[in-house]
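re: that chain from earlier
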Amino acid sequence: MNEIYIEYDFKVNPIIPGNEILIAELGMVGFESFVENEEGFKAYIQKREWNENILEEISILNSEMFTISYEVKEIEQVNWNEEWEKNFEPIQVADLVSIRAPFHENPNLKYDIVIEPKMSFGTGHHQTTNLMIQQLIDLDLENKKVLDMGCGTGILAIFAEMKGAQPIDAIDIDNWCFVNSVENVDRNNCKHISVYEGEASLLDGKSYDLIIANINRNILLNDIETYNNCLNEGGVLLLSGFYTEDIPIMDEKASSLGLKLDKTLELNNWVSLKYTK
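^ sequence. v structure.
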């Protein structure tokens, strides 16, 4: 018997950062899958997890900064692969890195990353993933020990291995991301990536030459001291998942830990910061 889902078709204005905020809030109340489009996104929750008052706790719907409308309908189980084939276009970064699904043609760039994203974050389309890949392009990763924190699809860990890093730990708190990362690591024939389900508490006693953390501002501010404690002297910390206006508060926290800001990349108001210890 197929699982019944409730589909919400949201129209969001402005879509940035409205989509990200709304998706984060919906995830907290049980929505498990999201497919973005030009007007907003569709969100899915199993009917047995749904109730008619489920949106009462979604604070962004009451914000005067956003105009959000939606339609609701009941549907049979969604074919997620089919949904992604409709919405996932291949991309290229700096004419060096291709990010594509298995059904896309290989453009034969230097680095070819094959991702079956399902509902996990990190297809390369989001500005922060793109920015982190740009940061990694410029780093010497040969035999560097790496952590990809909040790994999503595993795309950044996979790219790090392609650039010679080993060993690599990839961690995500979300089970769907954990499973998807394991699948994508295998799909790209990676041999040096270990994927874990959990949070920063898993880092006790660990040490790394490079830590990649593409999450969100509040989690980064909360966990950056843990990252710093795990970072080897002379190591690099890459941060993303926040906006240009968040740079001062992020830099204040990082500087208080003795980290030095070396490089800032920006794309459509999103930011990636490179720190050295």
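The radius of gyration is 19 Å.
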